[in-house]
Amino acid sequence: xxxxxxxxxxxxxxxxxxxxxxxxxxxxxxxxxxxxxxxxxxxxxxxxxxxxxxxxxxxxxxxxxxxxxxxxxxxxxxxxxxxxxxxxxxxxxxxxxxxxxxxxxxxxxxxxxxxxxxxxxxxxxxxxxxxxxxxxxxxxxxxxxxxxxxxxxxxxxxxxxxxxxxxxxxxxxxxxxxxxxxxxxxxxxxxxxxxxxxxxxxxxxxxxxxxxxxxxxxxxxxxxxxxxxxxxxxxxxxxxxxxxxxxxxxxxxxxxxxxxxxxxxxxxxxxxxxxxxxxxxxxxxxxxxxxxxxxxxxxxxxxxxxxxxxxxxxxxxxxxxxxxxxxxxxxxxxxxxxxxxxxxxxxxxxxxxxxxxxxxxxxxxxxxxxxxxxxxxxxxxxxxxxxxxxxxxxxxxxxxxxxxxxxxxxxxxxxxxxxxxxxxxx
Length: 426
Hints:
Radius of gyration: 21 Å
Mean pLDDT: 95
Helix content: 40-55%
Strand content: 15-25%
Number of strands: 16
Oligomer: single chain
Largest sheet: 7 strands, mixed
Number of helices: 15
């Protein structure tokens, strides 16, 4: 297969959905020579902040001169961008070669069954990364932890537990404690552990219990250890540990993510990969996060945010309250299995008007239903089913006033190139 055929194959098997469990990953890794066992990893699980913290650790390691792999999800700027080495995506030929290899092994899977789309991507990522001989790799869980495809990995250097809240409740459980137990499945002795300063008490109790059972400790940055000094779209400056730090990111939750990444970088030093404070600062300043409260354009203001659960939407609303106090026009699309009504109620005070659309995903809530629910939340909402047409309508409504596109990484990934072309011609 070439790159386009490999992408088409992934789209084809996506329709088969996903079944949790590690049997298929264990089998496909065995058939490929167990390349994952040659990787030293930082394994990251949590509900929100995984992608940001993963890229922060990646960039800090690179600044210190280490060769660092990254596997992240979901795909926002293209599927090859989810598999990187030193911030460079897997080459098209290597991507096609590994997807072809995984596909061609499906006939040997036996009772384990065929690999899902995410399992195929994960297996390809581990195989290719092992060929690149990295110093370490940063691996982001796809869903949960214990039964996530990435958890076929042996004990990591570090297990990082980001903020845990309610999401994917039909799969992971309906309480924070139940979800945390799934996430804590990535903790395997003798790994180091770090968690975020804003971790919920329910989740923290499960993390501590899991660590204690394995004879491990859990460093956690202080919730009030940092002071925000300056904030704007795509910029944060804060004081922490007797120095100032800069981020080219939006949202105060990124300060907590940065503190978590700094703590992880300190622990990596204990594991044989030292990273100096100057290299930490250099790496943090280099992080860019597409579709995470990302201001694509400042005049007029055009923001994209893939937040899709109550905690992520609350973080977005917190930012809007300070940086867009007059409210914004919103183009929103959400998946039907999310806590849509809660999210809409949170957004309502910050929304001048809303265009609802249908994200390009089989689990999407249709635009008309989303608009009906938005109206019930007190929002002036209309529906436009096709995303590109909805974007055109939203642009006309917003004019020179702020416009936010959000509610789903699938929607943001679909519309980001169009928004860039409209305002930059690229």
